[in-house]
Amino acid sequence: MKAKKLVTALVLIGVLSSVLAGCGTKDKTTSGSNQPAVTAASDKKGTDTAKVEKIRVAVANDFNPYAYLDEKGDYIGYEVDVLKKVDELLPQYEFEYQTVADQFVALTSNKVDLISHQWESNPERQKTYLFGKEIVTTWAAYIITKDGAEKLQTYKELEGKTVATFQGSNDAYQLETYNKEHNNAIKLEYNSGDFSVILSKLESGAVDAFLLPLSYLPSIEEGYKVKLQRSDEPSYYSGTYFIYRRDDADETALQEAVDGVLKTLHEDGTLEKLSTQWLGADYTVEPEDQK
Which range is the signal sequence, renumbered to this chain (predicted)? Predict the structure, then answer.
């Protein structure tokens, strides 16, 4: 992609599981008794059940609209539906979903085989984990300020301001990288996973701004009943991926198989339909087309 397309120097936004849950509730560690995607090998019609490999997939259970539990306790959401479509087209695998306290720990300790949580990539994480090559979603992230306040357009305009972020998040990575090159010109305030705290500080003036992907803005405004404003242009572009264990032949085979199906789902319009259904727009297109 072009320079203003997917950024590779990015990291995870794990905190957004609580953000998009509306009230900031955290994932509960559970395998779930009514998980819709935990299907028997016999469901793989025409496939020798002895050759079907069970794949343990870690997803969130309160990451609305990406992965959460419905009133019956079944997993639903955009990422869940994408994974279901992938599973349908891979007869050699059978996906079983579960929710874990820490997806990366579960992956490295061989408790799950694939993790899904709108994860992004950066060089350091590439050293430790195997990232898929096909995107799950694409992001255009903006500088967010209080409605009616001074609209901040660039990192340069954030200099001397206080910007809220989360330790280890993609936003923090972007801002920290800028600060390394500009003598810590932006004051960063690291917060916990409760997004309502940031919104309260924004309202009081304790912080001036924060960064947020465009696709998340409607959920934030609706879930917290707030009106926010964004910069006219994105502050960065990014993409999200499924993640696997590195240096594992079986995991590499799984990654390649899943990527092959994701490429097909992107080309035939399935990802676009699912994104529009769950996210309200197509967040699988080039990020610069997300306005």
Answer: 1-21
pLDDT at residue 225 in the model: 94
Return the biggest CA–CA distance within the chain: 63
Specify whether 178 is located in the same domain as 86: no
> 10 in a domain, yes or no?
no
DSSP 160: T
pLDDT (tens digit, 9 = 90+) per residue, 224-283?
999 999 999 999 888 999 999 999 999 999 999 999 999 999 999 999 999 999 999 999
* DSSP result, 184-196: T-SEEEEE-S-HH
Classify 156 as helix, strand or coil.
Answer: helix
If asked whether residues 109 and 228 sit together in one domain, one would say no
Q: What is the pLDDT of residue 13?
A: 44
**The predicted structure's pLDDT at residue 45:** 54
Residue 132 lies in a domain: yes
Show the tokens assigned to 8. Answer: 């590779």
Task: Based on the fold, state whether residues 216 and 242 are members of the same structural domain.
Answer: no
Any idea what the Cα angle at residue 165 is, between residues 209 and 157, rounded to 5°?
Answer: 35
pLDDT at residue number 10: 37
Contacts of 174 (CB under 8 A, 6+ apart): 10, 141, 211, 235, 236
- From 220, 235, 250, the end of a domain falls on 235
Domain of residue 175 covers: 142-235
Is the same domain home to 133 and 39? yes
The pTM assigned to this predicted structure is 0.76
Identify the CA nearest to 205 among candidates 159, 251, 145: 145
Position 169 scores a pLDDT of 78
Q: Which one is predicted more confidently, 130 or 44?
A: 130
